[in-house]
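Re: that chain you flagged

S.,

Sorry for the slow reply, it's been a week of failed gels. I finally had a moment to sit down with the sequence you sent. For the record, here it is as I used it:
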Amino acid sequence: MLRTTIPLTLGLLLLLPAALHAQEASEPDPAIEAMAQLEPMIGSWQGSGWMRRGPSEPEPFEGSEKIESRLDGRVILIEGRHRDPGSGEVVHHAFATLSYDAERADYRFRSHLSTGQSGDYRGRFEDGAFVWGMEVPGRGEIRYTIRIDGDRWDEVGEFSSDGETWNQFFAMELERAEALEE
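Prediction finished late last night. Pasting the structure tokens below so you have them in one place:
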């Protein structure tokens, strides 16, 4: 009897982790569900825009964004590059990862600039648009609003010193260039 019980018990112990994993896999994953809202961003985008640095006149740029999904939809990679339309010189180059933190129930936007600056920011959906932003210590708040409508990407950047009055310093209008394969 003991000869039969020990192998049977060991066999069940080996199968238990697989059975638990299968049970977990069948439950909805809040991160995957939240990230699915961002799927319309996936692809290559091209267009133009402008940005204002301080009180100066807006500076035009030609922009491109390459958005890719990774880890079964859990993380999105974003690379944006903006060039001066006259000289072709890169005036802004950024790389970011975007994911969902189920414990905090918000999106995490981790950005890196070619200037060496980086930051970890929160994001959310508001009125059908993805909004992310940052506090500027001692000065106010910056927010970016990205609205995808089919093959069109509209993005606005705004600054507020009081959290109520917003001044636009950035605008970008892109068209989908192609869809990216996962």
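What I noticed first: The CA atoms of residues 63 and 82 lie 4 Å apart.

Talk soon,
D.
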